[in-house]
Amino acid sequence: MKSISKSRFVSGVQCSKKIYFEYFRNDLKLPVSESIQQIFDLGHTVGTLAQKSFPDGKDATPEDFSDFSKSIEQTKQWIAEETETVYEATFATEKTLVMLDILHRENDEIWAIEVKSSTSVKEYHYTDSAFQYYVMSKSGYVPDRFFLMHINNLYVKNGEITSELFHLEDITKDIIEMQFWVEENFENFLKILELKEEPAVEIGTHCSSPFECEFTHHCWKHVPENSVFGLTRAGKKSWHLYQEGILKLEDIPQDYHLTFSQQLQVNGIKNNESFKDLPAILDFLHTWEYPLHFFDFETIFAAIPVLDGTRPYQQVPFQYSLHILDCEDTISHKEFLADPKDFLNSTIDPRKKMIEQMKLDFLRKGSIVTYNQSFEVGRLRELAKDFPEDSEFLFALISRIVDLLVVFNKRWYYLPEMGNSASIKSVLPAIAPEFSYSDLEISDGGSASTLFHASILDDSQNTPELREDLLQYCERDTYGMVVIYQFLKLELDKL
Predict the structure, then answer these.
(1) Long-range contacts for 207-216 (Cβ within 8 Å, ≥24 apart)?
(2) Which candidate, 355, 363, 366, places its Cα nearest to that of 394?
(3) Over 60: is that where the pLDDT of 438 sits?
């Protein structure tokens, strides 16, 4: 008899083929990616921290996750003894198994608490919570109240993390109303698990919602490279084309309605056509003032804030790179990288150090070139709010910011190699194939953020090698903008 856990119930709701594969075709599952592993690790960290809001509980976590029998018996025993708090309380029937993050007695009530690392209750949270309630009820134990415990995005760190980091949201009524739906789905999943071959399920938006499915590579193997699903900003249009039997961009009929950007992409695939609106680029760049400052922040955005005065998931800058290009094409480089130890020092705010360095590095005039200016502007506004004494300087920087992304977002310059993206990681290889990040230990902002955050939490990871790798990566990003700008200038010389 197959047993259905909470995670597999959620998988089944997403796609019946997914739950089938998890039981019978696990060989198809790709290795867990670094980004997914980070999500798992974050969930564990947040869950452990949440326990401190209900201290001194008994822990039913199994020693061996292939055998839950001891955890089930311990949970029963502690409930019978009226233990105030149980972590990882485990409930099972013949066909089900769930582990509840926190089971807590509060006055005369029994609370079931599921912990999430998000800042709000998501739709799929109701799904897994409703299944947990279902299993608890079937095992003879009905909680009085069921809570989602999620991160409070209004929380501001000030010293040690407190229980105010979390918000308890009562979802009891909602999940009780879902019990008939849960039972229907549960019975259906049991039938699916009795099938001799995988159920016939067509690909769809469910393949990536609420999670990117680990079996997508298998189910989508008939979808070719340069498919309609890669059509820029297409949304439902891609699915409409697919349902009409059109998979390749090159097979889109000539009379099919496409936006300007979409048509450029299709023409690029079909005919290797480029597009250049050099007068528009000239008019745009003509507004820029030398010396040009090519500027980029790197940030951490920790669920559990590590710096006093910051909120969960707040983008906190820890590094910048600045290339300055004068009218003689002379380039200089400035940079800043915070000391990870400063993030844990209540007397030193690394952001203040950064601002003071910026005052030295930025010249008093000249446009500040970014790639997607909303990010840098957002960080500067936040700094101005947190450090009002520096707001005049920071807002003066904002007033000088221009956005190189505009050239490619508006498709004033398009090469087929750019595909459906105007990101710097798509533009650079198209216009400067020799430009690369491949020789760097760190080659993307996500890795830079993760590694620096890790060095704050674990001093053994705060190494000279990491510092050098971070500096090299951020410098490469701003130099990439210089390369793009100089390329465009050469193109404009053709006018």
Answers:
(1) 207/15, 209/14, 210/14, 210/122, 210/123, 210/124, 211/14, 211/124, 213/14, 213/15, 213/18, 214/29, 214/30, 215/17, 215/18, 215/21, 215/25, 215/28, 215/29
(2) 355
(3) yes
Q: Using an 8 Å Cβ cutoff, are 213 and 10 in contact?
A: no
Q: Is 332 helix (H, G, I), strand (E, B) or coil?
A: strand
53 SS3 class? coil
What are 396's two structure tokens?
């003066």
Q: Which helix (H) or strand (E) holds 485?
A: helix 464-492
Residues 418 and 272: their CA atoms lie apart, in Å, by 11
| Average confidence score pLDDT of the chain | 95
Average pLDDT score over residue span 201-224:
94
Domain boundaries, the chain: 4-192, 223-273, 279-492
% of the chain surpassing 70 pLDDT: 100
CATH class of 4-192: alpha beta
Span 65-80, average pLDDT: 94
Could you please report the per-residue DSSP string of 283-326?
Answer: HHHTT--SSEEEEEEEEE--SS--STT--TT--EEEEEEEEEE-
Q: Which fold has domain 279-492?
A: Nucleotidyltransferase; domain 5 (3.30.420)
CA terminus-to-terminus distance, the chain: 74
For residue 207, what is the DSSP state?
G
Amino acid at 14: Q
Tens of pLDDT, residues 476-488 = 999 999 999 999 9
